[in-house]
Design brief:
By secondary structure, the protein is an all-alpha fold. 82% of the residues lie in helices and 0% in strands. The longest helix has 29 residues. It starts with a helix and ends with a helix. 30% of the residues are buried.
């Protein structure tokens, strides 16, 4: 078994991104004086959903890619998957805060989640194929 060093490195970068998203949510909570939920604050709701969406997808995807890397998958495949995941996760919050139906919303939010879904599916299929 190979130590998943690429996954570890990208995981560290993604953890810093998650910390940034968390700080972004906390800052809005403080400025809007909201301790629980979203308090009806649309900005807080968008920020919190950006953070939650990250927390919902990234851990599982990192696990899948780490297992794929540990199974000896191509470094190009692993690096490519992780790079697409990182770009998707950076784009998504910009789309979540964009005006409704704006080009930025479609490009960033839509592009971010499509990239995330693509990495999830490709990672899962690639791992299944390696184990077959």
């Amino acid at each position: 078994m190979v130590f998943p060093s690429l996954t570890a490195a990208y995981g560290a970068v993604l953890a810093l991104l998650f910390a940034g998203l968390s700080g972004w949510v906390m800052a809005r909570r403080l400025s809007a004086n909201v301790l629980h939920g979203d308090g009806g604050d649309a900005v807080l709701l968008h920020r919190a959903r950006s953070q939650a969406n990250f927390a919902e997808y990234v851990p599982l995807i990192l696990l899948l890619i780490g297992l794929l890397e540990a199974q000896g998958a191509s470094r190009i495949l692993v690096h490519g998957l992780l790079l697409v995941l990182l770009v998707g996760r950076v784009l998504h919050p910009f789309g979540m805060t964009a005006p409704a139906n704006s080009p930025r919303q479609y490009a960033c939010r839509g592009g971010g989640i499509l990239a995330t879904f693509a990495v999830l599916i490709v990672s899962a299929l690639a791992l299944l194929l390696r184990l077959a």
